[in-house]
Amino acid sequence: MAVFHITNKRLAVADVLREFKKREYLLNFRREAACLYCSELRQWILPENFNIDDQVYVEEMEMPDADRMIYAISLVQGPKGYLIDACNVYMDNISAEMMEKLKPNQFPAW
Questions:
Q1: 27: which of 10, 15, 18, 46 lies 20 to 30 Å off by Cα?
Q2: pTM
Q3: Rounded to whole angstroms, how far apart are CA atoms 13 and 27?
């Protein structure tokens, strides 16, 4: 499992994406209730078919509703990408498997 560390605690979403893309996390995933969707691959990806390699919480001090969790995700078939997820938004509309897969704090803080 890859974990990368950044010393700057005030990260923006663009900064995190730039770092993830340097590590070849290029596909853009969208969270659905029971899976991920990748428009580039035109695929629905079930929780057992992907792994969370890293995650970063991006806090917006001025706008707390804009907080995001950004995940680095690898598919079991090999391709890698990222998911930008609004923190705690629509969590009542997510399967138990997806909730378990996307739970925060699985990795050391940056």
A1: 10
A2: 0.81
A3: 16
